Here is the input.
Amino acid sequence: MAQLESLIPDDTEPGGDGVVLTRLANRLVNRIPMLCTLKTFYDGKETVPTKAVPRNMDVTSSQIYRRFVDICPMNLASTIANAVITSQKPTGFRLVADKTMRSTDADDMWQSSGMNLKSLNMLRDASLYGAAYAAVTDVPNPAYIKRLSPWDTVVSDDKNAAIFYSYNADEGMEYITLYRLTRNDDGTVANVYSRVARRESESRSLPTDSPDYEDAIYEMANNDSQKRPRLEPTFEWTGAASSDGYDFAAKCQCLPVVQLKTPTGRGQFEPHIRTLSAIDQQRFQRFCIQEMQAFKQRWVSGDLPEYYTKQDPAVKAGRARAGDKIDYSTMFELGPAALWLMPKDAKMGESSATDITPIISAANTDIKQLAGASGTPLSILSPDVSGSAEGAKLTTRMLRLKVQDMNARANDAFVLLLKMALTASNADGDAYSERFETMWEPVETPSDLDQAQAASYVKGLLPVKTIMRRFLNMSEMDIAEAMQDLQDTAFATALSRENTLVSSKTSQQSSPALDDALGSSLTLPDETLTAGGL
Here is the structure.
């Protein structure tokens, strides 16, 4: 086994911070080429190998073939990934331990941290790159939770260490922040700390998914000879390790960096890169065949003279002289009203059309196999597919299972982020010991009519909050607001009844019976707080 070269030459102790940082950094660097390929396919910027362009051609033909290389990608990769991404919609959180009044603190923290958008970006990263990352800090501004890029972040398999790479152009410095935790003999977390290494650099050593680096990313993915990135082993620690500001992580028994991974740690279409490339190659071949058929080759055969004679019409018309060599390329010019004067006994021939149906059928078969292998409904990859509603439900089963699996994995990551953020915001609280659950919209979002019908079927059988939560897909904050509206409506109704009763009795003297009637009218009717209140 080759000896590991530490990125920090002064720190080579086995199991030390320098060695741990180096191992994680190497994992990040080795993953970069595949990230470039995944982004390139997702953006539809992949190309067939340039060696597919025929050699020994004139300049015009070569440019035509190179254009086919640019336009042949079908971009099925984004469709496969988006089928999962667009089906994952977190709606909020609920405190599982509270059986009576649901807490909305979790939803407040989620919204104040901007996780409505950050969570969607994390889910996109996980489906596209196979992993997503976020970090929690004890500083509320701009937010407790910060999304990290999978191009810059790696977490160890045992989740005891993580690194984050960054570059400061103004300072001309590269930074790698190491996060580690130490455990007691019983496995509990004893301490969480971080340490920063840096080196001078004129530019980033590692690309990122920023638009400024897209051309370099596409070039690395489409050109095998492109130089791969690397980190120079000239980093140095900026100071000693520090555990300041990580009390919330120690209480939650985890790193401040949280990882969300797919079941295999790969993107949704990463295992199918070769199939996608094969489909693009077939499209390139089909374009080439169609282009050649658009300009059919024609020829003239027979005993053709080489030189003009005095009897030729062109000589008599003064367009040529006897003895001149005949230029057949000008004689058979194309045009809407062109007439060809054929030599005696000359025969015409034309190239026949090539049947591209087998190529199209093969491509359609590949798409069907890709849909089955990736668990993507064929109706999404090939919209012209028709069938029954029951058949469509069966074809979407694999997609539903994938989304449910990703939701379960995302729930663990989101809950951990939320618990750390709540703990950081309230050091004296016990959010780290609470149980939270992420609320999701259904994979197949029902219509308003379907939700209303489902709620009406269970009205009177289930409590109103349960109906709102399970059948109307409302978050805890929405439920709290709706319950307050129900109470306001009940109070307004009772007040209206009282005013009506008082106005009808203004001419009568107050009596014990009237007092009893007024007292009963001020009591909120119980039925407005039950399922009938819907």
User: Anything to note?
Assistant: The CA atoms of residues 53 and 160 lie 50 Å apart. The chain has 18 helices and twelve strands. The mean pLDDT is 81.
